[in-house]
Write a structure and sequence with these properties.
Layout lengths: L28 E5 L4 H6 L11 E4 L4 E3 L3 E4 L6 E3 L1 E7 L8 H4 L3 E9 L1 E2 H9 L5 H4 L5 E3 L3 E2 L9 E6 L2 E7 L7 H8 L9 E4 L7 E2 L5 E6 L5 E8 L1
Parallel strand pairs: 1-13, 3-9, 4-16
Antiparallel strand pairs: 1-2, 5-8, 5-14, 6-7, 6-13, 7-9, 7-10, 11-12, 11-15, 15-16
The structure holds manganese (II) ion (MN).
Length: 233
């Protein structure tokens, strides 16, 4: 059998740095949780669904490591920041209970779920999928991963500054769905594997960005992130 070669090269997802390790964390999938802070759900005119969390996804190749400049994306006039805690999965999890769920956590990082809000609102209105508003190039930013042995989600402060001004602020214990609840629920629908990331939703204060804006995101106890918005792509 002849060896098959690729016709061309394609973008690959970056490796995420891990505190204290030489190796990087490879990315399999990016899951994102919607409306996980009541105050943020309210600011977008939504109510929180306490029956079950819901999800959308982003392409792994749309993820960038913090410390860079990302282009203001095409097709939007309302490009928003969403600061989030990110869970990095490091062991298989399928139909796990909330008690078992934490065994699958490799670590945690600070991330940004970048959103074309005008396109999201248009899709919501027509009851169409959100992909065009959430899954695009450079639509997710992440910082180095802190191993789970060194961080336990509790009531840590999560915040985002834009050009030095506080825009978003909350605490992890305000999340509607806890970390084990999200993993347990998602594991009913997917065979979670090492390399999966879960963006856990954003606190209130989301807002529009302009080229040149400098974002500084933090979760108390994790490595903070910085990113600059570049000119329109
Ligand atoms: Mn989000």
């Amino acid at each position: 059998m002849s060896k098959i070669r690729p016709l061309f090269s394609i973008p690959t997802a970056p490796l995420i740095p891990v505190l204290g390790l030489q190796e990087g964390f490879p990315i399999h999938r990016i899951f994102c949780v919607g409306r996980n802070y009541a105050a943020h759900a309210a600011e977008l005119g939504n109510t929180v669904d306490r029956v079950a969390p819901f999800y959308f996804t982003k392409p792994p190749t749309g993820l960038v490591i913090e410390g860079c400049t990302i282009a203001y994306p095409p097709g939007t006039e309302d490009y928003h920041h969403e600061i989030e805690l990110v869970i990095a999965i490091g062991a298989p999890a399928f139909r796990v209970s909330t008690e078992e769920a934490m065994k699958s956590v490799f670590g945690y990082a600070v991330g940004l779920d970048m959103t074309r809000r005008d396109l999201q609102n248009a899709m919501k209105e027509k009851q169409r999928p959100w992909d065009i508003s959430k899954a695009f190039e450079e639509s997710a930013v992440i910082g180095p991963i802190t191993p789970a042995s060194e961080f336990a989600p509790d009531a840590q402060r999560i915040s985002l500054l834009v050009n030095g001004s506080l825009r978003q602020e909350g605490h992890l214990n305000e999340m509607v769905w806890t970390v084990p609840e999200m993993i347990s629920h998602l594991s009913r629908y997917y065979h979670l594997t090492p390399g999966d990331l879960i963006f856990t939703g954003t606190p209130s204060g989301v807002g529009a960005l302009q080229p040149g804006d400098r974002l500084a995101g933090a979760v108390e106890g994790l490595t903070p992130i910085v990113v600059t918005i570049g000119p329109a792509a």
